[in-house]
Q: What sequence folds into this?
């Protein structure tokens, strides 16, 4: 398998809706002889008043739990001989996805879109920003 990477951006709070993101990433990886990295970004609240009151050990536990949950989520898919890795990041979702894609020299980012609404102009704010600013191709997947 080549060193080509495809990032599948998932939200562990919306596992069922994001299953279509993972399935699309697997199909894309098969056609490009690539591996998939399943990525979950823990939204960081560092610029909020509340952040100062969250103990460091609690922040660490959230990340540990997210890594386990992401690995368990990944195990539930038929990867069809596509290699899969997982990564949990922390920060502003679209910024971290773009930075990570650049770091990996990813060929694609596969991300889900929100249900259509006029407020978001038919695409979620993170998907819109990733597709606008990423240096690689972005596939925006609608929930099934």
A:
């Amino acid at each position: 398998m080549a060193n080509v990477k495809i990032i599948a951006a998932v939200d562990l709070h919306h596992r069922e809706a994001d299953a279509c993101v993972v399935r699309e990433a697997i199909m894309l990886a098969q056609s490009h002889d690539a591996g998939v990295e399943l990525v979950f970004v823990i939204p960081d609240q560092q610029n909020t008043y509340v952040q100062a009151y969250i103990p460091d050990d609690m922040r660490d536990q959230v990340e540990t739990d997210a890594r386990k949950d992401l690995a368990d989520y990944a195990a539930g898919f038929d990867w069809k001989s596509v290699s899969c890795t997982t990564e949990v990041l922390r920060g502003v979702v679209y910024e971290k996805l773009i930075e990570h894609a650049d770091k990996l020299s990813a060929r694609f980012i596969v991300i889900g879109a929100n249900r259509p609404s006029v407020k978001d102009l038919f695409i979620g704010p993170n998907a819109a920003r990733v597709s606008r600013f990423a240096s690689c191709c972005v596939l925006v997947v609608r929930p099934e």
About this structure: Residues 94 and 129 are 6 Å apart (CA to CA).
